[in-house]
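Exercise (ungraded).
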Amino acid sequence: EPEVTQTPSHQVTQMGQEVILRCVPISNHLYFYWYRQILGQKVEFLVSFYNNEISEKSEIFDDQFSVERPDGSNFTLKIRSTKLEDSAMYFCASSPPGQAASPNEQYFGPGTRLTVT
Amino acid sequence: AQTVTQSQPEMSVQEAETVTLSCTYDTSESDYYLFWYKQPPSRQMILVIRQEAYKQQNATENRFSVNFQKAAKSFSLKISDSQLGDAAMYFCAYRSAGFQKLVFGTGTRLLVSP
């Protein structure tokens, strides 16, 4: 069964550094998402991406964050200048074609644990 | 803003028994979707069951069923004939119709003993 994959599984970076988290969504999916979960807290929505543009974003997704689908298969999340509070598990998800009004399942990847020191 | 509350941080059940996980949510919307996701240890979240708010009938998927009480804004998950493989973190999630964002609860860890 197709799965969403994410690399790396664990990333350690120093405060102020740029980091790129990579995701390969399921091949025929058209909607892509990033969520994050700070240790001990809820999974929080960051951004959704459709038709090569951001369709929704949360207040967490500020100018330090960007997303890109550079080559038709990968979906990346870039954090320009990492802060200690960016340490979290970052989940990528994708969902198949369908109207926004339908309860399309979001398929999640295993996550990338980002540690900012 | 919508919120989802799971008041049970951890639940335990014996194999073959039935367990119910609670979820309540707060919204002023009338059209939305509710989901239960399962996250086994070190694995990705997978969808267990979904419910459209406009449907009165409770969703069922094999051993998993929900008790959807729209007026009470309650969406509990019942797992019948529990199996060792059901041990996982269970997340309740809400999505507004017309939007993609999932709003999650804090999760309930389910322990299954032989």
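Further reading is listed at the end of the chapter. For now, observe: The CA atoms of residues 4 and 109 of chain A lie 5 Å apart. Chain A touches chain B at residues 3-4, 31, 33, 35, 41-45, 48, 50, 55-56, 58, 91, 95, 100-101, 103, 105-111 (CB under 8 Å).
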